[in-house]
Amino acid sequence: MCGRLSQYRGIHDFVAALSMPGALINNVGDQPLGRYNAAPTMQLALLHVADDKLHADAVRWGWRPHWATNRAAPINARVEKVAHGPFFRQIWPHRAICPIDNWFEWVDEGGPKKQPYLIRHRDGSPILCASIGQLPTPNQGEHDGFVIITADSAGGMVDIHDRRPVVLAPDLAREWLDLATPKERAEQIALHQGEPAEAFEWFKVSPSVGNVRNQGPELIEPRALEISKNPP
Predict the structure, then answer these.
(1) Which InterPro entries would you find in this protein's record (predicted)?
(2) Are 55 and 47 spatial neighbours (Cβ–Cβ below 8 Å)?
(3) 53: pLDDT confidence band, cut at 50, 70 and 90?
(4) Which of 3.40.30.10, 3.40.220.10, 3.90.1680.10, 3.90.1150.10 would CATH assign to domain 5-220?
(5) What is the 8-class DSSP label of residue 61?
(6) Residue 174 vs residues 66, 98, 116, 118, 128: alpha-carbon distances, Å
(7) Per-residue pLDDT tens over the stretch 123-173
(8) The whole model's pTM is what?
(9) What is the set of active-site residues?
(10) Measuring CA to CA, which residue among 115, 138, 144, 142 is closest to residue 223?
């Protein structure tokens, strides 16, 4: 998964997709989030549970443990290693959902530059990405960030990129967030129950998305209406 995504809907649209009952502690505001071209280190809306309430907080995309000062903060964690490797041991128990509208990948198609593709749900619904992080708490406003869990791609999506986010259906996203869900069960959800490639479609978009300074809805428009025909 490359380091670009969109998060432009309002947080209430994402919470509605999650369909999680109870109070929402909203620290990101009620207006549309408006990020059409989000990149690493940006503050993104993240959903997590604390004190039996769903929280929406702005959290930096990217995290590293305090001892890993010799490398940039990763933005992703490989599902095959995240539960048992030392790098993410500190934050593996701190589960979250990064709700997004789509993400971008770049493909070498033989031209002078790689061609960007947008990947979204086939039905246009929000995408609920399994994530972990150093999360805000009621008594601590500072935080280090979060990473999105990724898995091997499958189906036609392999032609776009070899990795993709672990995307959870709403019922599994709620179970992932539930503090009562054992870590062993959470690992099985991430490893085996992410949504299949058939739930997504992808199409070419403007090369303008390659410049993070570019923002706006024109970045998510199909280029020459070339939407993939992968079978449902």
Answers:
(1) SRAP (IPR003738), SRAP-like (IPR036590)
(2) yes
(3) very high
(4) 3.90.1680.10
(5) B
(6) 30, 12, 32, 26, 10
(7) 999 999 999 999 876 555 555 799 999 988 765 565 566 788 999 999 999
(8) 0.91
(9) 2, 105
(10) 115
